[in-house]
Amino acid sequence: MKLVPMNVEGHNGSLRRQKREWILAPRNLDEGHDYTTYDFIAKIRSDKETQDKIIYSLTGPGVDQDPKGRFAVDRDTGKVKVYSILDREEIAAYHLHGVAKFPDGTRAEKDIELVIRVIDINDCTPVIKAQQVGQVSEHSKLGTVVMKVIATDDDDNTTANAQISYRIDESSNSGGMFSINSQTGEVMVVKTTLDREVSHYTYKLIVLASDLGGQAGGNTGTGEIEIKLTDINDNIPTLAKETYEGSVEENTVGVEVLRIQAVDLDMINTENWFAVYEIVSGNEGGYFNITNDKKTKEGVITITKVCLNER
Hints:
Subcellular location: Cell junction, Desmosome; Cell membrane
Strand order of the largest sheet: 1-5-8-7
Protein name: Cadherin domain-containing protein
CATH class of the largest domain: Mainly Beta
Radius of gyration: 39 Å
Pfam family, one: Cadherin
GO molecular function: beta-catenin binding; cadherin binding; calcium ion binding
Domain Cadherin: 47-128, 128-239, 240-305
Strand content: 35-45%
């Protein structure tokens, strides 16, 4: 049995001999093109046609298997016809088999394979994966890699149709703190002035992903990524007030005299923020002690020795 080569929109068929069968090289049809108006895209012909009437049929996905009805063959002429517009992202290749039978239902000869490959067109837009979050320490060095943006394109990844180029929408890049590698999607620090306490705890950047490697005429998808600044211990604690005063009755010990509160701009409830208190001067007699209140984070000054009120 033969598959007769046909020219379909410039895709030339070619035949190669294999014992007594003729096999057509895979046929290539462009996705999105309307081949339903074509009389046929290929033709099956059996050598046994000279001996008896042959009835042709096709089998396989796209014919009698899901998705059914996309291809059919004329039982008398062997002409293969397309009945719907093809989408490569749904099925990239159809592996069909041509069958030739005599009127009594017996096989005229061995089935022949027909592979119809769907050629990609750039009909898909890159999609940036949702909820991509990275983090970097404030005051990081230039070139520090924060995260890698991930985008996908359902077009053929062996072609430029799925070759993605990345860029940041600069209107979202406050202070121009970050850049992105157009090929890898790696987001990097480009300024050393990232300061969690001064500017932002979090940056939200709009990233654009374009296919065709960013060339004109491609499709572009957008998505938001989030970069969180992690705290470093870059702030010195200060006291909430310059002066604190307290009083205690004489001849008492173990009594709380007063509390002091430290202020630190580093991240609350972290080691960078917790203050440790100590008395550095004025307590030469050892009358007082200061401890940390773990709940309020205050320094608590208590009297540890009897302090006489001399008049």
